[in-house]
Design brief:
The chain is mainly alpha-helical. Helix content is 59%, strand content 5%. The protein is built from 19 helices and six strands. The strands form three sheets. It has a two-stranded antiparallel sheet. It has a two-stranded antiparallel sheet with strand order 3-4. Strands 5-6 form a two-stranded antiparallel sheet. The relative contact order is 0.14.
C-alpha cells in the first residue's frame, strides 16, 4: 500500500511558469477559504459557502488543464480517496433508499463530493500540498491573537464592538469566531493547525514561544472546553508515540517532544486559572414577582451557536445553521448588559451543552434500529424527523460525528468512516506517524463532540499529513 500511495499521488509534473503560479495561487486560496466559513450565498435554494466554491475552482482547473489532468486522475487512485469515495457512494445509496426528501439530503451529499474533489486536488501536486501546510502553519499565532483581541474588546465594551464574536446566551459572554461559522469551528481550526505546527521537526524557539503564548489565549477567547481537551489529548498521544515507537536516542526523543510539553503546560495553566476564577453557575434569570419579560425582547434562542453545539451541516429552511438550545428563562439575557459567567469552569452532565448532546443522541437512537441500524436512515435526515431540543420548529441536527454517521449510514457507513481514518494513518510516511497519531486522536475526540468532518480544513489537513517527506524532513530524520 505504501508503494501504491507514493506512485499514485503527489506528482511533480513539468509545468509552465504560468500554470505553476495559477495552481499554487488556487491552493493558497483554498487554504484561506477554509478560514472563511462564515460567508456564503444562496444559489438555487442552497447556501453555498466560499470554502466550497474555491475547491471546485481548483478541481476544475486540474481536470481541464492537460498538464495536470493525468496527475489528478492518478491521485484519485490513492487508497485514501478510494475509501472516501466508497463512503460517499454508500451515503448516496442509503439516501436513495431511506431518505424522505432527496433534495434535503442533496446539500450534504454535494458537500461530501466537493470534499472528495478537494482532497484529490491537494494530493495531485506535491509542491501544492507542502505549500498548503506552510500557509496553515503561518496562520496559527495570528489566528489565535486576533481572536483573543476580538474577545477582549467585545466583552469589555459589552457588545458595542463585537466584530468577530457571537453572544453566548447561556453564559452571557461574547465568544470569538472571527471569520469561522462559529466559536467551536474557530477553535477546531486553531488546535488542528497548532498540532501540525508544534510537532514539526526543527521548530525554532521563537515559534514555540509564540504558539505557547498565543494558542491558549485563542482557545480562551473561543470559550470552548472540547477544544482544550482535544488539544491536550493530541499532544499527549504524540508524546507517547514519539517516546515509545521511535528508534532514536532518549535524549533525541525528549528534545522532540519538548515544544509540545511547553505548550501543554501553558495551556493547562491558562485554562486552570480561568476555570478557577469566578462563578460557573448560570446566571439567575428569575424575575421579581409580578414582572414579565418584555414582548419586544429578543428571543432566548438566537441564531448564534453556543459553545460546543456546533455547525453540524443540517440545513435549515433558510440554509443556515439551526439555533442552539437556550435555558427556559423568565429573564431574557441582555447582550448590552450581560451577567457574565465562567463558562470554562462549568462542566454539567445534566444540563448545558453536554446534557443537550445526550438528549440529541437519545432522539437519534429512536431510528437506529432494525435494518436502519445496519444501513442508516439516509444522509442528513435527522432534521426531517426531529426538532432541535428546546427550540420547537427548528430542524434538529446531530452534533456528534459518530452518532451522525451511524444515523445516516448505519454500521456500514460508520465502518467505512473508521476505515478511512485507518487508511490515512497507514499511508502516512513513517517519520510522520507520531504527528498523525496525535492529530487523529485529537480529531476523533473533537469529532465525537462536534462535527468538523464536512469542512474544508479536515481534507486540507489529511492531504498535508499524507504528502511525501521533504528533503529537510529526511535530513532531520537521519540526524
Amino acid at each position: 500500500m505504501k508503494n501504491l500511495s507514493i506512485a499514485a499521488a503527489y506528482s511533480a509534473p513539468s509545468l509552465a511558469r504560468r500554470t505553476r503560479l495559477v495552481t499554487l495561487a488556487l491552493i493558497v486560496a483554498v487554504v484561506i477559504s477554509s478560514f472563511l466559513g462564515r460567508y456564503d450565498a444562496e444559489i438555487a435554494g442552497f447556501r453555498v459557502r466560499i470554502e466550497q466554491v474555491v475547491p471546485l475552482a481548483l478541481a476544475a482547473w486540474m481536470i481541464v488543464h492537460p498538464a495536470l489532468r493525468p496527475a489528478f486522475l492518478r491521485a484519485l487512485r490513492h487508497p485514501v480517496p478510494l475509501v472516501f469515495a466508497a463512503f460517499v457512494a454508500w451515503n448516496v445509496i442509503s439516501t436513495l433508499v431511506f431518505s424522505p426528501s432527496l433534495s434535503w439530503s442533496a446539500s450534504i451529499l454535494i458537500w461530501l463530493f466537493i470534499d472528495l474533489l478537494l482532497l484529490v486536488s491537494l494530493m495531485t501536486v506535491a509542491e501544492g500540498a507542502d505549500l498548503a501546510g506552510r500557509v496553515g502553519r503561518w496562520s496559527v499565532a495570528p489566528w489565535a491573537l486576533v481572536g483573543f483581541a476580538a474577545f477582549v474588546v467585545a466583552n469589555l465594551t459589552r457588545g458595542q464592538v463585537a466584530l468577530g464574536t457571537d453572544f453566548d446566551w447561556l453564559y452571557e459572554v461574547y465568544v470569538t469566531r472571527l471569520t469561522a461559522i462559529e466559536a467551536n469551528i474557530y477553535a477546531s481550526i486553531l488546535i488542528f493547525w497548532t498540532l501540525l505546527t508544534i510537532t514539526r521537526r526543527g521548530i525554532g524557539r521563537w515559534e514555540t514561544a509564540a504558539i505557547a503564548i498565543a494558542v491558549p489565549l485563542g482557545l480562551v477567547a473561543s470559550q470552548t472546553r472540547t477544544a482544550v481537551f482535544s488539544l491536550v489529548l493530541g499532544l499527549g498521544v504524540f508524546a507517547l508515540f514519539t517516546l515509545f515507537s521511535t528508534r532514536s536516542t532518549w535524549r533525541t526523543r525528549f528534545t522532540r517532544i519538548l515544544p509540545t510539553a511547553i505548550l501543554g503546560v501553558t495551556l493547562v495553566v491558562t485554562y486552570g486559572i480561568v476555570a478557577a476564577v469566578g462563578n460557573a453557575a448560570p446566571a439567575d434569570r428569575t424575575l421579581p414577582a409580578g414582572d414579565a419579560p418584555s414582548a419586544s425582547a429578543p428571543a432566548a434562542s438566537p441564531t448564534q451557536l453556543v459553545d460546543d453545539v456546533t455547525a453540524s451541516p443540517s440545513p435549515s429552511a433558510d440554509g443556515g445553521v439551526p439555533a442552539s438550545p437556550a435555558p427556559q428563562a423568565t429573564r431574557i439575557p441582555d447582550p448590552t448588559n450581560p451577567e457574565q459567567q465562567n463558562k470554562i469552569g462549568d462542566v454539567d452532565f445534566q444540563g448545558g451543552t453536554i446534557g443537550f448532546r445526550l438528549e440529541v443522541a437519545g432522539l437519534a437512537a429512536q431510528e437506529i434500529k432494525g435494518i436502519n441500524l445496519w444501513f442508516g436512515n439516509g444522509t442528513n435526515t435527522f432534521g426531517l424527523r426531529h426538532d432541535q431540543p428546546g427550540t420547537p420548529g427548528v430542524s434538529g441536527h446531530i452534533i456528534m460525528l459518530p452518532v451522525q454517521v451511524l444515523y445516516d449510514g448505519g454500521i456500514v457507513g460508520l465502518g467505512l468512516l473508521v476505515a478511512l481514518f485507518v487508511t490515512v494513518f497507514v499511508c502516512v510516511p513513517r517519520p510522520r506517524k507520531p504527528i498523525a497519531a496525535g492529530l487523529l486522536a485529537s480529531y476523533a475526540l473533537s469529532a465525537t463532540l462536534t462535527s468538523m468532518f464536512w469542512f474544508a480544513v479536515t481534507w486540507i489537513l489529511i492531504a498535508v499529513l499524507l504528502r511525501p517527506l521533504t528533503e529537510d524532513e529526511r535530513d532531520l530524520d537521519r540526524s
